[in-house]
Amino acid sequence: MAKDKKAKGTKDSKPRGEIAALIDGLNIDLQGEFQAVIMYRLYASMVQGPYRQELRASFANEIPEELAHAQILADKISALGGTPVATPAPVPVVKEAKAMLQEALKAEIETIERYTKRRAQAEAAGEVGLAAQFDDILADETNHRDELSQMLARWPY
Fold this sequence. Notes:
Layout: H1 2-8, H2 16-46, H3 52-79, H4 97-124, H5 128-153
Helix pairs in contact: 2-3, 2-4, 3-5, 4-5
């Protein structure tokens, strides 16, 4: 009986459909993390105006955290038997500092929505460790969202 159960699932007897759907979702998330790395790097380099120094530092400081999230996702995709994507989601290129903050905020909100769903999906698939990792990632992304919201709330023009 155990053999039959394993034959219908993955190496851990998890239903193939749930794991395949999780891998697909994780790859979408990985594309989002790659997008964030590129977006924050571009914005840090391109930002101009009176708040350049502060915004440049803020954008650049997000990059290591986004890379760490990408590593978690790519490692889990591979561990589940999938192949991590190598392309980012489209990167919005804007020139005005306020528009950069708005695009970054939009991306963080979308990421929080995806990760909330993915956390539930991971738990349903029996990937409780991944679900716990999403708690930490969601805390990071929520902090990013809040910081960007506060920057925009005080924007003078």
